Amino acid sequence: MGLGDKAKNKAEELGGKGKEAAGRASGDRDLEAEGKADQTESSVKNAGEHAKDAAKDLKDGLTP
To answer: Which entry of 5, 22, 41, 56 is 20 to 30 Å from 30 by CA?
Structure first.
């Protein structure tokens, strides 16, 4: 996973946490849900990047 991807995913996660907290504090359930969705999306992207990294590592390990 590239450093840029990691930073972008982390920023999305932190933005989601901020939205969730703001929504909870203001009683805005839609904003809170949007924040949770942003965090979930970031987690899915991270999982995909980790899977790509693992596949690349496996391929590199099998290639002489």
So the answer is: 5
